[in-house]
Specification:
alpha+beta, Nucleoside Triphosphate Pyrophosphohydrolase, four-stranded mixed sheet, three-stranded antiparallel sheet, about 35% strand, disordered N terminus
Length: about 150
């Protein structure tokens, strides 16, 4: 697919996403359990829409998935590439197997109420750093939480 066609592909998901790790000053990390596949825990994530920039997508996804509108959102200027899981692959163009993920953090003074997107997630919980690292399902998510909990965000 040419770059011109990709900019307006209404059928397939863009293979570029944001990961937003939400955490409190006490070192608690917000984790969300996806509706599908069951048992898949993660931080806030979402694909960029065609023509959307990563910073805008991060702000949009936090509000859509958690209802959280406060806190300091920081683009960590860190990207990772991962293989798209077969369970998620059907929404991408044929032959697309990898995704580029932009990492963000959202720091809160304390826990805030969370309003889940019921179409995407079944429950949430706050977890201490080591527990959060052990719970999340993706290696890219583990890497960002680990850096944040150790005070090395970049």
């Amino acid at each position: 697919m040419s770059d011109q066609n990709r900019a307006s592909d209404p059928v397939h998901r863009r293979p570029e996403s944001v990961l937003i790790v939400i955490y409190t000053d006490l070192g608690e990390f917000l984790l969300l359990e996806r509706r599908r596949p069951p048992g898949f825990w993660q931080s806030v994530t979402g694909s960029l829409e065609w023509g959307e920039m990563a910073d805008g997508a991060a702000r949009r996804e936090v509000v859509e998935e958690t209802g959280i509108t406060q806190g300091v959102l920081i683009n960590l200027q860190w990207t990772q590439v991962y293989e798209i899981l077969p369970a998620f692959g059907k929404v991408y163009a044929p032959g697309v197997t990898r995704n580029l993920e932009h990492a963000f953090s959202l720091r809160l003074a304390q826990r805030v109420p969370v309003t889940l997107s019921e179409s995407e997630h079944v429950r949430h919980r706050w977890a201490a750093g080591a527990d959060a690292v052990a719970t999340v399902s993706s290696s890219t998510n583990r890497a960002v939480i680990d850096r944040l909990r150790l005070g090395r965000p970049h």
